[in-house]
Design brief:
mainly alpha, Receptor-associated Protein, 13 helices, elongated
Length: 268
């Protein structure tokens, strides 16, 4: 396969539209700009990561042996996966924090004694999170006669949204003060967010250790070059070096991904 063919495939992977994407469905005029969206929204899906790995493999293959190019492509794929997982973890934490603020604002509006539909629409103006947008849609649905709990359940699929719908249904059934119930729900969500942050801080050490162990061979190669052992020459242009390089990169990548998976499982 020629260099132009590989680059064309990589470009196609980057710009291929994703009609099932929530963001794309809400912005139909932007579906074709995948490369721009990757930069602006820092989105590294499997196709983007594959395209980056293919491009890196091709570029290195122009100046180095094939096994070195494959190793570079594999490293690029692993780095892209780690960056995407980090982005998702941080985005989830930001969304959870925004949802907690939304619930606190909702409780404050309810304590003021306003109508529930008006309260939901007013709360929707306090932020731009998914829960805020869902509350705005639910407020309009309540205005036209839909049950509040059903409207919220239909507007959002988030866990906090379902819990809020349950609180509203419980309040309507048993006469519990809705403002106090939402305040308790917001407090529980804030406590869960605080515990998650504490756990993430405790697990930062294992993440850093795994990263350090993965890059230690690079320092070993640099030290070998400084003392005249020429490990790069061995790795690139001998059969044993090629085997060591492929196996070493594969084991390092597997170790990093395995460690990250274990840490992510502990966080969840």
């Amino acid at each position: 396969m020629s260099a132009a063919s590989v680059l064309a495939i990589a470009g196609a992977l980057l710009v291929w539209p994703e009609p099932d994407s929530t963001w794309a469905s809400s912005h139909p005029h932007r579906r074709g700009g995948r490369a721009i969206d990757v930069v602006r929204r820092w989105r590294l899906g499997i196709r983007e990561r594959s395209a980056i790995a293919m491009s890196a493999t091709l570029l290195v293959a122009l100046v180095a042996p094939v096994h070195a190019a494959l190793c570079v492509g594999g490293v690029a794929l692993v780095l892209g996966t780690l960056l995407e997982r980090t982005r998702r973890r941080r985005r989830s934490a930001r969304e959870h924090a925004a949802d907690c603020d939304t619930l606190l604002a909702l409780a404050a509006e309810l304590r003021a004694g306003h109508d529930l539909a008006a309260v939901l629409r007013a709360t929707a103006q306090t932020g731009s999170s998914e829960l805020c947008r869902a509350l705005g849609r639910a407020g309009h649905a309540i205005t036209i006669g839909e049950h509040p709990a059903d409207a919220i359940e239909r507007a959002t699929a988030s866990a906090l949204g379902r819990q809020l719908a349950g609180v509203i249904r419980l309040s309507a059934t048993h006469g519990i003060a809705l403002a106090e119930a939402v305040d308790v729900l917001a407090g529980d969500a804030s406590d869960a967010l605080r515990q998650h942050r504490d756990l993430a801080g405790l697990l930062a050490g294992p993440r850093a250790t795994a990263t350090l162990l993965a890059v230690l061979p690079v320092f070993g190669i640099v030290m070998g070059e400084t003392i005249g052992a020429h490990p790069i020459q061995t790795l690139l242009y001998t059969g044993a070096g090629a085997l060591v390089m492929l196996v070493g990169v594969a084991l390092a990548a597997a170790g990093v991904l395995w460690t990250q998976a274990l840490v992510a499982k502990a966080e969840s």
